[in-house]
């Protein structure tokens, strides 16, 4: 951006720019522009004019012209000095996506370095560092470990004692976890210090010399949890008490129980059928003394409730009495089982929970000997430091968390990561055109359908347009403020990510838990072929999206922003095998991340195969079959069917002739099944195929959650929420709570669905995931804020879950029973009708007319025909899309007939019609 010499710019320059006057003898005019994720400085030369020699007597050359250069930084940094003044460091562009910052301090004391990208602080900014004078006799400390670090990786710094003489050097690290400190005397007046933080957060590092803090001490380091992988198991150990009275199995489903300790802590507890036929409760005793057990049906105590239960000292779970043995909690080896033993025989009743966090997700196996002792084995695949949290009755056992050094060969897994800034989408207004886009290559738009349900419960069909090849958009115009549910189906099955949440008006919440991702690239892929998936960040607001692919080979990742709160990601890998796709938003994993994806070898001969005569109208417990054409391919075919419950079953394959196979399978459940068809171990085109078995009326879009348990909650207080499954069909309801500690949780049947109750023990953020037939309901996972006192010990994230097989339920409204109709907004006067069948009919023939209700809103079409001797024989109504209908009817008697056509409760124009036969 510059202009010719004849038109100099004389307007003043904006004050926010930094001006640098530079003189050049001769040069080409040029301008450097910012490359995406590369150079971060734009240099703009924009004014050019002659400079007479007499005005510059001090120059050793005669300039022919002068340029003023102005710099616009997307990366900015500034240092706040102890005096309060602000200084600017030097930013060097490394031209590889990174920048280096250099600073020459002018004052002693604590400095703050603020680093911003596009006006936003980068992670960890502002950074604090201490500047000391270089005079002898002082002890100083420096190094990255005083400022930042990553959990499970040693944080290091150096202490210089040159010229300080003799004296006691003392170090301490305090923070969210204990940190093992090691140090090494370098014999040159410096000491190298390393500490290992095991949990993210802020750590206080104290360095004393001669019982006095050195200058700058204590230091505060920010430790992040980036890059760690966690696995966990829980083993129950509960006290059981039999209650008087006999309860039938049907009654047991509608009962819920809770137990209140002497201090007032109330938790849900489980009811179970005892061998005697009576019911019993199962709970974890936390206190000594008399407990009160309440058993209720629909909010009312059953006979003899509340019951009294006395807990003695030896029954209360005591983590200090758990004995842990085995060297595997100090050192371990990769690719082998590292075993240690846990003895809880003298520790009372309590649940044992184990989590292992480290460079790889270590596989855990637990062998319960049923005598209070267990053997636990873990198998890591990468060397490094692992953190083992072992808790009993929600408290750490002695020595936990353990830091384990794992040695051995890794898997040489390659990791590629990209990071992109996502801008918040402008607020959507009522009446505006809304759009939700998704990419599904290789399908036909005829098999796609979409509906939008408003906050008031009104469902309407939405229009789907193909923007470009494989890219589709759902269009709708909202009539209300609030959270809408957008369901997108392909061949009557929800696409990955559906049902979607779409907020009209301001967003009520933001964050990683509201990001959705879905597509074939998160399920399977092929070596050397781009695998694609969608990411929807609209509901999460603005932030940084980080995408990583880790596996046997490095990935090439491509990112395409659709500028509407969604984006398209594709990646290509050169080696087959197991890969992990990590998706983080503002440094937190999105729901279901990381995704485990198997990349199969190059398709080879498998690409020749095709499926013919794919079955429809399948029924559970009835065999089904389809044909596969080989088209000349040579090799072995194998197939399996995966049911909704994740149970796998082999298919029976028979070679019919030289070029055709018959594949038979036996579905045993209703719901969406996946059929995997492989040739020479590689998926054939289109595999795995998703098919519907039976009348699967399960719809997660119809499930809604509400109640206090989804908002602000307190530790030690039992809270509940209602999950409304009316009109959603019978399915599997799975509720999972991730948080700072495990929660006691139960689920009981109520009139409108299911009631979930839980008691949190630690303050912090909890995330409740609610899935129906393995699909998130709208709003899931829900972010829950918990306040109050700590009633357990912190130690890594913990997961609690409950799974229920539901029964079909229908809504009840007012005095009438049955399904509640949605509130229709329609106008029957805008309906157009035409056709001979509205005036005249012929005996024994199909008489036809059409109805156009495209401009009449949404409602139900009713058609009735009454003749001299009663109703006509048959009426057929065919919906052809977008509220267009074809109506056929058959009459067998002469005379005058009355034809009624209603749109909801209102007659359409001309109705009732008089028809002559």
From TrEMBL:
Presence of the UniProt keyword Cytoplasm in the record: yes
Official protein name in the record: Filamin
Gene Ontology terms: biological process: actin cytoskeleton organization
Highest taxon listed in the record's lineage: Eukaryota
Family: Belongs to the filamin family.
Organism annotation: Anopheles atroparvus (European mosquito)
Main location: cytoplasm
Compartments, record wording: Cytoplasm, Cytoskeleton
GO CC, one annotated term: cytoskeleton
First and last residues of every Filamin repeat: 76-131, 131-223, 221-311, 314-406, 404-504, 507-599, 609-693, 695-786, 823-917
PROSITE patterns per the UniProt record, alphabetical: FILAMIN_REPEAT (PS50194)
Keywords: Actin-binding, Cytoplasm, Cytoskeleton, Repeat
Molecular function in Gene Ontology: actin filament binding
């Amino acid at each position: 951006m510059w202009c010719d010499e004849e038109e100099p710019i004389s307007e003043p320059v904006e004050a926010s720019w930094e001006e640098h006057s530079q003189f050049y003898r001769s040069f080409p005019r040029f301008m450097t522009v910012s490359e995406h994720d590369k150079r971060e400085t734009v240099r703009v030369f924009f004014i050019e004019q002659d400079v007479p020699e007499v005005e510059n007597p001090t120059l050793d050359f005669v300039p022919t012209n002068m340029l003023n250069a102005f710099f616009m930084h997307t990366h900015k940094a500034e240092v706040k000095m102890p005096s309060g003044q602000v200084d600017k460091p030097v930013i060097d562009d490394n031209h590889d996506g990174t920048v280096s910052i250099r600073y020459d301090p002018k004052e002693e004391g604590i400095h703050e370095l603020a680093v911003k990208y596009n006006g936003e602080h980068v992670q960890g900014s502002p950074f604090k560092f201490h500047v000391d004078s270089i005079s002898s006799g002082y002890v100083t400390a420096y190094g990255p470990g005083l400022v930042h670090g990553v959990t499970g990786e040693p944080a290091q710094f150096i202490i210089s004692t040159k010229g300080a003489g003799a004296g006691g050097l003392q170090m301490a690290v305090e923070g969210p976890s204990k940190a093992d400190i090691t140090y090494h005397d370098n014999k040159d007046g410096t000491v190298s210090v390393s500490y290992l933080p095991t949990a993210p957060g802020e750590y206080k590092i104290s360095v004393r010399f001669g019982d006095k803090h050195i200058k700058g001490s204590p230091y505060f380091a920010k430790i992040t949890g980036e890059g760690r992988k966690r696995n966990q198991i829980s083993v129950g150990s509960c006290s059981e008490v039999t209650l008087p009275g006999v309860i039938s199995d049907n009654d047991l489903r509608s009962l819920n129980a809770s137990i209140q300790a002497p201090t007032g802590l109330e938790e849900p507890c489980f009811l179970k059928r005892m061998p005697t036929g009576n019911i019993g409760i199962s709970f974890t005793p936390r206190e000594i003394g008399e407990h009160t057990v309440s058993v209720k049906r629909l909010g009312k105590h059953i006979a003899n409730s509340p019951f009294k239960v006395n807990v003695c000292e030896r029954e209360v779970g005591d983590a200090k009495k758990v004995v842990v043995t085995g060297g595997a909690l100090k050192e371990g080896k990769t690719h082998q089982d590292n075993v240690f033993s846990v003895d809880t025989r003298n520790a009372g009743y309590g649940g044992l929970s184990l989590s292992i966090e480290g460079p790889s997700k270590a596989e855990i196996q637990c062998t319960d000997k049923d005598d209070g002792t267990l053997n636990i084995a873990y198998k890591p695949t990468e060397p490094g430091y692992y953190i083992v949290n072992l808790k009993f009755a929600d408290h750490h056992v002695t020595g936990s968390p353990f830091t384990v050094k794992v040695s051995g060969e890794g898997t040489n897994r390659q990791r590629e990561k990209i990071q992109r800034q996502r801008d918040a989408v402008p607020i959507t207004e009522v009446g505006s055109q809304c759009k939700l886009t998704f990419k599904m290559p290789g399908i036909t738009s005829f098999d796609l359908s979409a509906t939008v349900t408003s906050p008031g419960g009104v469902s309407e069909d939405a229009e789907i347009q193909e923007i470009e090849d494989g890219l589709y958009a759902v269009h709708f115009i909202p009539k209300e403020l609030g959270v809408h549910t957008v369901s997108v189906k392909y061949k009557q099955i929800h696409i990955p990510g559906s049902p979607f949440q779409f907020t009209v008006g301001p967003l009520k919440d933001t964050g990683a838990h509201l990001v959705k991702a879905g597509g074939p690239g998160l399920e399977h892929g092929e070596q050397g072929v781009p695998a694609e998936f969608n990411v929807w960040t609209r509901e999460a607001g603005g932030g940084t999206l980080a995408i990583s692919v880790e596996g046997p080979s490095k990935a090439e990742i491509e990112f395409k922003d659709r500028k509407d709160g969604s984006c398209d990601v594709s990646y290509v890998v050169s080696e087959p095998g197991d890969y992990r796709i990590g998706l983080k938003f503002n440094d937190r994993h999105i729901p279901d991340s990381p995704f485990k994806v198997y990349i199969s070898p190059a398709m080879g001969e498998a690409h020749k195969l095709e499926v013919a005569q794919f079955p429809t109208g399948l029924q559970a417990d009835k065999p089904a079959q389809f044909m596969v054409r080989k088209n000349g391919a040579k090799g072995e075919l194998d197939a399996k069917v995966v049911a909704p419950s994740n149970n796998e079953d082999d298919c029976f394959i028979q070679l019919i002739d030289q070029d055709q196979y018959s594949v038979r399978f036996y579905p045993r459940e209703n719901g969406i099944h996946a059929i995997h068809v492989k040739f020479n171990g590689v998926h054939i085109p289109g595999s795995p195929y998703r098919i519907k078995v039976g009348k699967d009326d399960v719809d997660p879009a119809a499930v809604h959650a509400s109640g206090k348990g989804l908002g602000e909650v307190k530790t030690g207080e039992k809270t509940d929420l209602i999950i409304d499954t009316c009109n959603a069909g019978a399915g599997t309801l799975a509720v999972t709570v991730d948080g700072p500690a495990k929660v006691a949780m139960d689920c009981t049947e109520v009139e409108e669905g299911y009631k979930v109750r839980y008691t949190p023990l630690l303050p912090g953020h909890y995330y409740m995931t609610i899935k129906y037939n393995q699909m998130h309901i709208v709003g899931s996972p829900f972010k829950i804020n918990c306040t109050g006192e700590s009633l357990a010990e912190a130690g890594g994230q913990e997961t609690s879950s409950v799974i229920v097989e539901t029964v079909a339920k229908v809504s009840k409204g007012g005095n009438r029973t049955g399904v509640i109709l949605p509130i229709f907004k329609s106008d029957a006067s805008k309906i157009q009708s035409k056709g001979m069948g509205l005036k005249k009919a012929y005996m024994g023939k199909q008489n036809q007319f059409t109805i156009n209700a495209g401009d009449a809103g949404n409602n139900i079409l009713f058609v009735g025909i009454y003749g001299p001797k009663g109703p006509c024989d048959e009426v057929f109504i065919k919906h052809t899309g977008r509220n267009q209908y074809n109506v056929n009817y058959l009459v067998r008697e002469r005379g005058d007939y009355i034809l009624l056509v209603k749109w909801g409760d209102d007659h359409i124009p001309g109705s009732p019609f008089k028809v002559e036969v």
